[in-house]
Amino acid sequence: MRHAAVTRMASLIAVISMTGAAGPTGLAQDAVTPLAPDACAALQGLSIPESAIGLPTQGAAVQSAAAVAAAVEGNPNGAYCKVTGIVKPKNPSSPNLEFEVNLPIAWNRRALQMGGGGYDGTLVTGLTGFTLQPASVDNPLKQGFVTLGSDGGHKSAAGFDGSFAADDEALLNFGQQSVKKTHDAAMAVIKKGCSWA
User: Fold this and answer.
1) Which residues contact 143 (CB under 8 A, 6 or more apart)?
2) Hey, which of 5, 32, 51, 157 has its CA 20 to 30 A from 174?
3) CA-based torsion, 153, 75, 106, 109: positive or negative
4) Which of 11-34 are b and which e, b meaning 16 or more Cβ less than 10 Å from the residue's Cβ?
5) Are 177 and 152 in contact (CB under 8 A)?
6) Could you tell me which of 116, 103, 129 has the C-alpha nearest to residue 179?
7) Nearest 5°: phi and psi at 24?
8) Residue 43 main-chain phi, psi, to 5 deg
């Protein structure tokens, strides 16, 4: 019995080594989806229905969509489409949730959502490296990831300003819901911008 298991393992190792140490190719996650030249401009004013957001909202809207050239001074991310927008709160007196989604020119069909720190309150753009990223590694956007972030569902002054917590929806967004709402809005932007369904 043990001999048969060893023989099977040896056969498996032989097959893997014949196909290449890098592993299988042609997988869906290895595909690259190009961003059409007019896709960025087409995102301007995109209205995202509340049904596309998996939590209670009044929907979302893209406020700006602009192509950013690789040659722009200080841009370490290559060419991409910068999209900013808001998720509208269910309660009209609660603050909007601001988000940013960055679509690379050659999308690797992966997305990376970046988060804030402390009490949030400032927009996380997704244009920098991730926490503890080695300096020798390209930023995720340059690697082909769609990057996204939000302000946590409220605006705050610098430091630890927790005054937003007096609003129930803002507190829920900060505590948990902003991650899902940002993700869902970003998925709508990705589907429209990258012609991906």
Assistant:
1) 108
2) 51
3) negative
4) eeeeeeeeeeeeeeeeeeeeeebe
5) no
6) 116
7) -65, 150
8) -80, -20
